[in-house]
What we know:
Elements (H helix, E strand, L loop, with lengths): L1 H21 L5 H8 L10 E13 L6 E3 L11 E3 L15 E2 L7 E3 L16 H12 L4 E6 L4 E3 L4 E2 L8 E5 L16 E3 H12 L9 E4 L6 H4 L10 H18 L4 E7 L2 H6 L3 H6 L9 H16 L6 E7 L16 H10 L23 H12 L4 E8 L6 H16 L4 E4 L7 H11 L11 E6 L6 E7 L6 E8 L6 E8 L3 E12 L2 E6 L7 E2 L2 E6 L3 E11 L3 H5 L2 H18 L20 H9 L6 H4 L9 H22 L13 H25 L2
Parallel strand pairs: 1-19, 2-3, 2-15, 3-6, 6-11, 9-10, 11-12, 12-13, 13-14, 14-15
Antiparallel strand pairs: 1-16, 4-5, 5-8, 7-9, 16-17, 17-18, 18-24, 19-23, 20-21, 20-24, 22-23
Helix pairs in contact: 1-19, 2-19, 4-6, 6-9, 9-11, 10-12, 11-18, 12-13
Amino acid sequence: xxxxxxxxxxxxxxxxxxxxxxxxxxxxxxxxxxxxxxxxxxxxxxxxxxxxxxxxxxxxxxxxxxxxxxxxxxxxxxxxxxxxxxxxxxxxxxxxxxxxxxxxxxxxxxxxxxxxxxxxxxxxxxxxxxxxxxxxxxxxxxxxxxxxxxxxxxxxxxxxxxxxxxxxxxxxxxxxxxxxxxxxxxxxxxxxxxxxxxxxxxxxxxxxxxxxxxxxxxxxxxxxxxxxxxxxxxxxxxxxxxxxxxxxxxxxxxxxxxxxxxxxxxxxxxxxxxxxxxxxxxxxxxxxxxxxxxxxxxxxxxxxxxxxxxxxxxxxxxxxxxxxxxxxxxxxxxxxxxxxxxxxxxxxxxxxxxxxxxxxxxxxxxxxxxxxxxxxxxxxxxxxxxxxxxxxxxxxxxxxxxxxxxxxxxxxxxxxxxxxxxxxxxxxxxxxxxxxxxxxxxxxxxxxxxxxxxxxxxxxxxxxxxxxxxxxxxxxxxxxxxxxxxxxxxxxxxxxxxxxxxxxxxxxxxxxxxxxxxxxxxxxxxxxxxxxxxxxxxxxxxxxxxxxxxxxxxxxxxxxxxxxxxxxxxxxxxxxxxxxxxxxxxxxxxxxxxxxxxxxxxxxxxxxxxxxxxxxxxxxxxxxxxxxxxxxxxxxxxxxxxxxxxxxxxxxxxxxxxxxxxxxxxxxxxxxxxxxxxxxxxxxxxxxxxx
Length: 691
C-alpha cells in the first residue's frame, strides 16, 4: 500500500511538472495553483479538550435533510425537499415540466412518471410524491419549491424550439379572481398562490401536518442558461426582488404558517454578482453593498416593512464544492486518491479563515469563510433571518472520503448555527454519505442520536482530523463524541480530556465507519479505558468513530437541589420535555378560505401556534413563524448595527473587480523554480529514497 501511495505521489508530481512545462503563459490563478501543490502528508496524534458543561450552540435537527431523489431509502433524515432541474417550469395544474438545457428543452411528465398515466391529471402530483415519500421514510418536515421564473410547460410533447412560445404557459404569482380546486388548464395561465391554496386545502396548515415551507424557486441566477430556448435575459437584482416579494406576500396571505426560503442561489459567485459583474458594477450596486446577498437582505427587509410582516424567514443558498486538485480535477466528480484527499479539506471553506481553496472560488477569497460571512450580512441587513443550505454536496458518496466530508459538513452546520441543510448528492451511489447522516440521527438503528447541544471542543489546528461533541437536553448526562482520521496511512491517537464539574463519565459504546464498508459498525472489543474523564482513542487511517458516554453525578444530588438556579434549570428542562411530548387535543376547525384572503392576522398565527403537534424543539421552529413587531425589529436592528457593523464591514468587504490578469516576471521565476524543484523531487523519490 505504501508503495502504491508513493507511485501515486510521483505520478502526480510528474503530471504537474509536465503541465507547467507545456504551458506557454500562465494566469495568476494557474501560477497560484502550481505553487500550492501539496500532497497533504499524514499528521500525528491530537490532544482533545471537551468542556461538557459549556454549550457552544443548540443544534437544529433540520440540518439533517435530504433532497428528494430516486434513492432516499436507508437515510434517517428530518427534512425532505423537492429538487430537480425542471422545477422552475413545473405546471402544477397539469404536472408538465421542461427539462431545460440538460434535457434538450423537452416538455414531459418526468417529475411524476413514477405514477400511472391515470394519475397524471391530478393537480400537484409532484407534491403528492413528496408527501408520500416523507410518510414512507418517516420524515417529518416537507418543503416545496415554487416556480417563480414566469413560464411553465404547457404540454408533454417533447423538445421545444426557440420561438415556440405557444408551448409555454404564463406563470403569475397571484390570482385576482377566487381560487378553485379544479384549475382551468385551458386558459394558458398558472397561478402560484392558487398552488399554495391547493396544497393547504389538501394537506392542511402546518399545524395540521401541512407543507412546512416554500422556496422561491431554485437557482434564479441560472434561469437564462438553463432555459435559453425562452430567450430570457439574465435576471436583474430589482427583478428578482420584485418577483420574490410578490410571491412571498402571496404565500403569507394564504395563512398556512409555512416558512419562506430564498433566493437559493447556485454558487458563491452568484452570491456576489447575481448574474454577472458588469450589471452589478454598471448599476452601482457595489457602491452601497459588498455583495448581492447584502442587497437582497436589505430589499427583502424593506419589502417586509411595506407588507406589514416578515416576507423572508430563511436566507437560502446552494453550495456544491468547486474545489480542485493541483492538476485541475474537480473533487466533486472524482474519486481518485488526490481528489479524495482534497475533498476532506474542502469543507473548511465554510468555516476556516485560514483555508485557501484551489479552484474558482479563489477569486472570491474575501467571502471566505462563507457561513460566518453570511451570518454577518444577516445581522447587518435583516436581523433574525435564519440561514439554510438547502442543496449541498462535497462528492465521494461511494467512498469513505465522502462520509468524512459529510461528517465535517454537518458538524460545521451545527457549529455555525445553520437552521436547515439538505444533502443533494451528485452521485447515484451515496451510501457513505447516508451513513454519515445516520451517525448523527440514528447510529444504532433504534433512534439514538448524536445530541442537540453542541459542546465546546478543542482539537488544536490539525487539518487531518476533526472532533465534534454533543449532549442532549433530554438526557444531559449523556455525551457523544465523533472523531475523524483523514490520514491515508498513519494511525492517529486522540488524547481526550473531558472537563466537567457535574459528571464522571464512563464509555458505553464505540461505532465506526471505515473504507471497507459504508455500514455503521458497533465495535464489540475496544480499548479506550477512561479514568478521571480522560481516555485515549487510536483511530485507523481514513476512519470515523462515534464514542458514546454516560455520566454519573460527581456531587451529591442535594447540593444541586439547594440552589434556586439549578431548580429553575431542572423545571425548564422538564417543561420543554413535556411540551415536546404534548399531543394536539383538537385541530383547527375553520375551513380554508376559497378566495384570496386578507393579510394573515396575529390571532391566526397564535391560533396555529396553540395547536402545534411538535416533533421536537428544532423541527417545531418550522411551525412557529411569529411576526416581528416594529418595536422589536427596531430594537434588534439597533443592537445589531451597534455590535456587528464593524465585523460585517470587515468580513463583507468590497467586491474584487478588474480585467485581464498577466503573469509578472516574479511569477515566471517562481514557476520555473517550482518546476525545477518538482523534477528534483521526482529524482529524489526514484533514486535516493528507494535505497
